[in-house]
Model the fold of this input.
Amino acid sequence: MPVTSCSIRSIGNENYRIDFNRSYDFSQILKYDVYHTSYYTMSHESFDTLPNYVSGDLSLSSYFPFSKPYSIFAKSMILSIDLQSKINVIKFSYKGAFSENPLVIKNNGNVIYSNNRYSPVWETVCILAENGNFALEFNPLSSSGSDYMYFDDFTLYEIDILNKAVLYDTTGVLHKVFSGDNIIFIKSLDKFMNESEIGGIFSLSVCDSVKVIVYPNPARDIINIASEYEGEYQFNLYTVSGGLVDSYTGIKGDDVIKIDIRGKNLIQGMYFYSLKIGSKSFNGKLTVVK
Done:
């Protein structure tokens, strides 16, 4: 079962404690993957009109909509969009009857969600999807039969950077939380290797936080540097004995700095780095793998 509620509070030193409800399940939960980011864009559709990415036997209904003024009422429906970001979270709400024709969600042709039962009350679904085609299909070949669906509150989160914390209990500490609006979602893995759905998207507004993320760590080919600061930058990479491997300079705008370490003949192991952006300085450790 997915996580449906959580609380987050600052514990100082730019760390945040998260506590969430223990999901009821028939099997033991091995671990919880907690994802969070402030690097995302959100688009939301409450269906004042029918958008051009939706087709089928459709109409707008004001009969108990999930979000006013309308919901989509469908006897058949296909929603198809091309996701540009590497990581995406899709959230929507629906209810209806699916005895003959299930509701099916596909990501690049692979089924990632389906429902073939009667759902008389509104259900909210959050799904993690890769870049490529995202398709929602309900009775796509015919509008005959008694099945129907109400659909509303479609939200797309396009994520540029996604941080992950692995917890083995329902409480833990999150690091690398940026200032501004953050989103958080949680997935669990049980002892049979069944992964839960995302229960919900939780929001967190942070006033003061980590200002730089260097990722991936370990790194292989490219080092990415995300920061809220802008200006001239210098990134120095050192061996553990203090020898300078290389120095990289440039202008940091609102994009991510990319450091290409291919062709540097780096051996696998630990390195240190120093980063200066404008008048701000940072230091850290970085592992290089082959």
